[in-house]
Structure formats: structure tokens, C-alpha cells
């Protein structure tokens, strides 16, 4: 989960749902992400789940081999999830933006997020993405 938005009353309701699905003796390394994932596939939670997040790095290599934003992948999305896993895949797959790596690939995610926003604005905001009806 990347974006969660709710009123205070709704957060209280969801918090109780989250607590109710935590298994007894759960591994101490388990996270809110794992619990929310379990909750997502339960019935009768009345939680609205939307696909408005880019779940991997939004970069690709263009024909010249440059790492650029994939504007189509970002279309109609609200955020990018820069998870540890996605960061490593992008870095080792050579589709990670060039940033100062002083803090490593995981420690540099804040700087990477700023770079993603900058690159998106420069490469995608003014660019019109073709739709199926444009062909």
C-alpha cells in the first residue's frame, strides 16, 4: 500500500480490522503492508481499493539506451511506490535514475523520489500520451 486516506473515524474502524487479522504469534518482522494485503482479500471490509499507484520504478531505457520516465505507465496514477524490492530491481536492471549514491540504493530513496517527480514533470506533464482512439 502506498496511499491510504480516510477520516479519523474510518482510520479507527480500519485499525480494528487490521488488529483483528494479525495472527497470534506473528513473526516480529511482519509489517503493516503484509496485514493490509491480507485485509484486501477479505470480504465485507467496505474498504475501497484503487489502482492508482505505480508499483515499480517508472523508468525504461529508450532507443538510445537512456533511462527515461515511462509516461504511459504513469498515466492516471497518483504516486510511485519506491519499495526496497523495486529499488533493487531498478538499480541492478540499470533502470534506476542517476543520483548521488552516498546513502546507498535503499537509503537514497528520498532523493530518488525527488528525482522521479522532477523527471516526470520534465518528460511527461506536457507530453500527450496517445489513447486507443488516436490510432
Structure write-up:
This protein is mostly helical and 135 residues long. It contains 6 helices and 4 strands. The protein has helices at 8-21, 32-40, 71-74, 84-92, 104-107, 109-123; strands spanning 53-54, 59-61, 67-69, 79-80. The protein has a two-stranded parallel sheet. Strands 2-3 form a two-stranded antiparallel ribbon. A hairpin with a 5-residue loop joins strand 2 and strand 3 (67-69). The longest helix is centred in the C-terminal third of the chain and has 15 residues, at 109-123. 9% of the residues are buried. The model has no long low-confidence stretch (mean pLDDT 82).
Q: Please tally the β strands and state the result.
A: 4
Low-confidence stretches: none
Number of helices: 6
N-to-C span? 35 Å
How does the helix and strand content classify structurally?
Answer: mainly alpha
Give Rg in angstroms: 18 Å
How are helices and strands ordered from N to C?
HHEEEHEHHH
Strand content: 5-15%
How are the strands of the biggest sheet laid out side by side? 1-4
What global shape is seen?
A: globular
Mean pLDDT: 82
Helix content: 40-55%
| Biggest pleated-sheet summary | 2 strands, parallel
Amino acid at each position: 500500500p502506498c496511499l491510504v486516506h480516510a477520516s479519523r473515524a474510518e482510520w479507527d474502524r480500519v485499525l480494528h480490522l487490521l488488529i483483528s487479522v494479525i495472527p497470534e504469534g506473528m513473526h516480529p518482522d511482519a509489517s503493516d503492508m503484509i496485514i493490509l494485503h491480507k485485509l484486501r482479500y477479505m470480504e465485507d471490509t467496505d474498504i475501497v481499493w484503487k489502482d492508482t499507484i505505480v508499483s515499480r520504478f517508472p523508468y525504461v531505457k529508450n532507443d538510445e539506451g537512456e533511462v527515461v520516465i515511462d509516461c504511459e505507465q504513469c498515466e492516471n496514477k497518483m504516486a510511485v511506490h519506491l519499495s526496497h524490492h523495486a529499488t533493487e530491481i531498478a538499480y541492478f536492471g540499470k533502470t534506476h535514475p542517476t543520483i548521488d549514491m552516498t546513502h546507498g540504493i535503499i537509503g537514497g530513496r528520498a532523493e530518488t523520489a525527488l528525482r522521479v517527480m522532477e523527471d516526470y514533470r520534465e518528460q511527461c506533464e506536457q507530453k500527450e500520451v496517445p489513447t486507443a482512439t488516436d490510432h
